[in-house]
Amino acid sequence: MADIESLLKEKRVFKPSAEFAKRAVWNPRTAAAMRKLGQRDPAGFWARMAKEHVSWFKPWRKTLEWKPPVARWFVGGQTNVSYNCLDRHLEGEHAWRRNKAAILWEGEPGDSRVLTYGELHREVCRFANVLEDLGVKKGDRVALYMPMIPELAIAMLACTRIGAPHTVVFGGFSAEALRDRILDVGASVVVTADGGWRRGKAVPLKAAVDDALAHAPAVKSVVVVRRTGESVGWTQGRDHWWHALMQHASADCPPARLDAEHPLFVLYTSGSTGKPKGILHTTGGYLVHVATTSKVIFDLREEDTFWCTADLGWVTGHSYMLYGILANGATSVMYEGAPNQPGPDRFWAIIEKYRVSVFYTAPTAIRTFIRWGDDQVEKHDLSSLRLLGTVGEPINPEAWIWYHRVVGK
Known about the structure:
40% of the residues lie in helices and 21% in strands. The chain is α/β, with parallel strands linked by helices and 409 residues long. Helix 4 (42-53) packs across helix 11, helix 8 packs across helix 9 (205-213) and helix 11 packs across helix 12. The chain has helices at 4-10, 18-24, 28-40, 42-53, 81-85, 117-133, 150-162, 175-185, 205-213, 242-246, 283-297, 315-327, 346-354, 363-372, 374-378, 397-407, and strands spanning 62-67, 70-75, 78-79, 101-106, 112-116, 141-145, 166-168, 187-193, 196-198, 201-203, 221-225, 239-241, 258-259, 263-268, 278-282, 305-308, 331-335, 358-361, 387-390. Mean pLDDT is 93; it is low at 10-24. Helix 7 links the parallel strand 6 (141-145) and strand 7 (166-168). The protein starts with a helix and ends with a helix. It folds into two domains: 1-338, ANL, N-terminal domain (Rossmann fold); 355-409, no CATH class.
């Protein structure tokens, strides 16, 4: 892994071609033109976005096939999410991104890692080969129950590379919640960790997996990342250490050419209003949507460091921490722990450390920050910020004004 301080100091962001830079800018005039196109011809608008923001192995023959309630996007087209998030940034005019930071990761205890696009590509290919060696084939489901560590992002991208739909289960959910989702999606492999850090304590994830799998016999393999160093139960033949499997895995794994309607992931509702409901997202339409919205809504630029504070267990994390941001070749920040560990200024310290330029968080978090006091914000240099966003629920005027005034200056 690249050294964080030297990587940031060197600012390994190289100037792209003039043509790419020109295409990358959405000014008011082009935005107005796109808005008119979208209103007049929605399918035509999304066809244009698909051509501009996504690389395809095979062009589609029909943009939208709409038979209510079923919509099929980019019918006949073939693409791959992992290829769009990684490989194409290592080729041709974008090859300079190989040494650009893809993920800046901050662990709650203070450890940190940088994964460049080249390094992330290598790790994803290796874990994709690990999954295939465990018998995972295109269409097989993989459940991910992990802390917010780089291995979670690697596992998600590895699944997309071989066409194995994933379901990410939030690490704060119980063993029973995990069991229900594993059974419903029909997962054959679970990827987890010995534990994760939350508010200074190790959360025992592997123990929850063991409890869940007592009632999910279809799971044949469990891959465990060593994160906290806590002792864990072990089932010989079923359980495998991540590092042991990765040690000899090949870094050569061509991306599968997947139909645009191939299942990408299933994400479950919280279950607070009854049995959790699995929402299926498919490959082409989802990728076009998140690549476009990441670019346009956030005015995403080559030099941006983007931080979406959502956990990857939620759809916002999928879209705006991982897939949409990496599809655009930007740098994404990933944080493992709580916003008040070790102190209530942790988020502002991270923004200062990594020179975050786009910050995307929840109104609930903002209202908490207000209670913790302006002084927690003001003791950090947040001058790198140029755009603030909120997500999750409507923001009340008082919170918006505080966010604008105190954080955004």
